Amino acid sequence: MSQGSDCTEISELGTLDSVIGIARGDIDIVSPPKASTASSGKGGISLTNGVHELLDCPICSNSMYPPIHQCPNGHTICSSCKLRVHNRCPTCRHELGNIRCLALEKVAESLELPCRYQKLGCHDIFPYYSKLKHEQQCMFRPYSCPYAGSECSVTGDIPALVTHLRDDHKVDMHNGCTFNHRYVKPNPQEVENATWMLTVFNCFGQQFCLHFEAFQLGMAPVYMAFLRFMGDDNEAKNFGYSLEVGANGRKLCWQGIPRSIRDSHKKVRDSHDGLIIQRNMALFFSGGDRQELKLRVTGRIWKEQR
Ligand SMILES: [Zn+2]
Ligand SMILES: [Zn+2]
Ligand SMILES: [Zn+2]
Ligand SMILES: [Zn+2]
Question: Any idea where the SIAH-type domain is (predicted)?
Answer without folding.
Answer: 110-170
